[in-house]
Amino acid sequence: MSIIRTKLKRLRTSSWLSKIIVSISYGFFSAVGINLFLNSANSYSIGIPGIAQLLHAILMIYQIKISIAKLVILLNIPLVITSLIIFGWNYTVFSLIAVSANVVFLKIVPVSHILSDSLTNTIMGSTIIGLGIGLCFRTGFSTGGTDVVVSYIQKKFHKNIGFINTIINGAILIIVASVLGLKGAIYSLIGMVITSYFMDKIYIQQRDVTLVVLTKKSSAVSSSLRGYTHGATMFYGKGIYRNEKTDMLISVIQKNEISLLKKMILSEDENAFISVQNTSLISGNYIKRL
């Protein structure tokens, strides 16, 4: 139990700095993706930045000038409050940093036309944004906005964030198609699929795996893991080859936890056999570690 607490404490201390760096990096990535690429293709990002882009374009038709950065701030206010209620301050503070960094960089990064081809602009911009959002989720927080809703659904129903984002952002595509034309909607659809793909690839916490451990020191191993977030089941048995006592421990965990648990298990039994298998369906009392 003490080993777990010590390791988790070290992880929490070191993660604060990495979370701040990632949240600021996301703000930069998002601004670069929008101002240098997506705007050139009349393509729209996912989530609040995409909605802000869309509102900005619609308001410009009526000669109303409100910057994308200001719209991002206004749209995020109710969702940040929701994040505080659902996830608490520790989760929300980094989302606030990410949103703030995005607003600042949207002002700093100039709106430019680097590439002439709309499809290439869409692919480049969407890839950069997808990497930024995926890194935020992987580090343990969202990018604010609609990602708060995505985080809640992912935690509650174990659905991939990319899939959820695609469903939510379908509304943006419908409005883009009806107000600004089919071409922009098609490019936006391509961009959203690309962004969702990279989000899912980067955010490995949403992938659950089954951990199987064969050990001759089951008492020490089980004692070490007893205080961890996820439960485990021990099966008592005997090895066929040497006819020695060999017990099997099974637990469902998140993919990003494999390295930590491996170290903890091997610290108790350096000869333990560890196997990891993909898990596609989970039913029961299973806790996600954000």
Describe the structure.
By secondary structure, this protein is α+β, with helices and mostly antiparallel strands. It has helices at 2-38, 47-61, 68-87, 89-108, 118-139, 147-157, 161-168, 170-180, 182-202, 218-225, 258-268, and strands spanning 208-215, 233-235, 247-254, 273-278. It folds into two domains: 2-205, no CATH class; 207-278, 2-Layer Sandwich (Alpha-Beta Plaits). Helix content is 63%, strand content 9%. The protein has a four-stranded antiparallel sheet. The protein is elongated, with a radius of gyration of 23 Å.
Q: In a few lines, what is going on in this structure?
A:
The protein contains eleven helices and four strands; from the N terminus they run αααααααααβαββαβ. By secondary structure, it is α+β, with helices and mostly antiparallel strands.
List its traits.
290 residues; alpha+beta; Alpha-Beta Plaits; 2 domains; 4-stranded antiparallel sheet
The tally of strands reads 4
**Average pLDDT score:** 83
- What's the overall geometry? elongated
Estimate nothing, just give the exact number of structural domains.
Answer: 2
Beta-strand percentage range: 5-15%
* Assembly status: single chain
Roughly what percent helix? 55-70%
Low-confidence stretches: none
Structural class by sheet pairing and helices: alpha+beta
What is the H/E string? HHHHHHHHHEHEEHE
**Alpha-carbon Rg, integer:** 23 Å
Strand adjacency order, main sheet: 2-3-1-4
Tally of DSSP helical segments: 11
Question: Strand count, sense and closure of the main sheet?
Answer: 4 strands, antiparallel
CA distance, first residue to last residue: 20 Å
